[in-house]
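Chapter review: from sequence to fold.
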Amino acid sequence: MNMNQSGNRLLAMTVVINGDAVLEYDRSKPLPELQAEYLQRMNQKMGLGIELNGHWLSAPDVMQQAQFVAIQLYQALAQQHDGLAAASTAWLANSLPEIRQIRVEGVKDLMQVESIQVDFVTDREHTPEHRVDLIMPEKKH
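The token string follows.
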């Protein structure tokens, strides 16, 4: 397990969809100036209000903003919009330095959404999951 820390800032954040790591953000690398400016503009826009779960929030807190950005991240991945996915990941990693994983579960696949559940994990780093498919034997009559 990687325990790299700089103060309270964890260095790695992993985006996990249905148990599969799809992105990893390295906080030890400084943001280029243009990306930092873009994240600042994201903060300003969200400060004016966001729509989350069908409700308008005129003054969203950081966790509401994080949920909004995580949904944007998922949509960017589904549409293969690498720039928005990178910006969303950078925003989440820099705005929530305690986050080790963003876990999205319950998605059939990136293009056929059944439902989405987003969890922000702070207590453990991502480790690959080992899944086992169990096949029940047919009953003989």
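Two observations follow directly from the output. The chain has three helices and eight strands. The beta strands are 5-6, 9-10, 12-17, 20-26, 50-52, 55-57, 101-105, 117-121.
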